[in-house]
């Protein structure tokens, strides 16, 4: 099939969510506390649905199970990636994710969760928490037990266009005032380390998962340096942010015209700004800010015309 597959996102309400997904992208969100747009997802906790065309109405999980030819020879028992847009209207909990082996053993065969963040937009002075200052597990436990969060957690100032790679085992959190595109393994396993003593809507303190969190945290913290590579053509700029064992992530900044060969098993594309047209030998498809699509296997050579910014990934 030589045409893009457009998807309808799923939305998740979160205690820290807001309304930016509606205000900036025009999405029909379920409430004023909508934190997550699961834009391209085959995870059982929230599946995208094909928006139009031959497979309209199918979930991405169904498509993966029943039409594996669209995804090349990628060998996995499940769709491997998940693309989200996160509206951090308030601070997220400080958390950590397990790796594949730990999740397989302790989370019913779930994948681990390595992720990365592209900062679409943020308020002046916005921050993330990325890493910690404990030198040993004993010190980590002691600082957690004493609530020495200012001493333990590393804070990093961010600005629009920044990119961060967050391997499993990294203590991290988005802080308030951030709009992020996240590319991650298809996992929904999170261990909360600290949640600012917040209570849920029933007045209960939100659950922490300290034993598992301490188990999986990398000590001492290892900072992953992101060194993007940039290729400019007459009509576009392609930035490669990361090439890891789980995913490769790019930004396509098209200001006129881009022509590429789809030479991966499949590619996930999220249009974060602008509009344009994707052209293949089977036809033309309009794209605009807020669209999410998959470029399937054997799409062949394609063009993007217009002015648009896209975050693109593949396994």
From TrEMBL:
Zn(2+) binds at residues 97, 115, 172. The active site is at residue 192. Pfam families: MPI_cupin_dom, PMI_typeI_cat. Residues 6-105 form the Phosphomannose isomerase type I catalytic domain. GO terms for biological process: carbohydrate metabolic process. It catalyses: D-mannose 6-phosphate = D-fructose 6-phosphate. Belongs to the mannose-6-phosphate isomerase type 1 family. NCBIfam families: manA (TIGR00218). This is Mannose-6-phosphate isomerase. It comes from Thermolongibacillus altinsuensis.
